[in-house]
Amino acid sequence: VGQGLLMARYTQAFGAHGVTVSQVLLTADDLMRRSQHTNAFRALNRLLNLGVVPVVNENDTVATHEIRFGDNDRLAALVAHLVRADALVLLSDVDSLYDGPPSHGAKRIPLVEGPHDLDGVSIGKAGKAGVGTGGMMTKVEAATIAAGSGIHALVTSTGNAAAALAGEDVGTWFTVNGARKPVRMLWLEHLASVHGQLILDDGAVKAVRDRHTSLLPAGISAISGDFEAGDAVEMASADGTVIARGLVNYSAAELPQMLGRSTKELGRSLGSRYDREVVHVDDLVLV
Q1: Do 26 and 89 belong together in one domain?
Q2: What does the mean pLDDT of the chain come to?
């Protein structure tokens, strides 16, 4: 019901300016799988080339709790990456990010060049409007995701939208502080539901963190959690420091018998399906 009413409003508002809109529903799974990711990119790119404005929302009908964006701000960050946007503009009911409550005389933060600029900043969790999902917290998270993956971002109010697009000094500008990454890696780093943790020995920590290699069973000393093959898990050092996230190739029931053993040994004793990585480097992101 709500989607139909929303699109009717968008169609009416944009139609008054001679612009056609199109509804596009996505799930996180659409951006994780290469074939679906490519189809989504082609569809959005085609719409833009035709002069149509895509109105993107999460497809709640088929999205699952484990694989979803959770709010439209983070969805916007990944879509901006998908269409290779130059910048992401996130609109709120607050005109900028402040170093405290604006009503208490806080100062506007005009520029964020990296996570260190947000140290000690208290960010509210909900907007005044009280509708939809997300608030200033999720907008900052989305802007941080975008900036960290090669896309400038601006957080400001709806009332400042025209001024922002005109290049005026409004809102909070998040400047690029990282290179572009595959959308799948952004999902794994920021949005994936973690189902367990793998504790690595010192050698495995160095291999994964410093040499960017796959995680082998020989380097795992302990596991925790309830997960199946294909689930997202954390990889941590012996002191509990999380160094990476990845998609695990074995379930929590299978791994205990494999810990500390070489892939050759496992292949001989348990069969060929056990002579591979626990987490492949292509399914792993450092955090």
Answers
A1: no
A2: 87
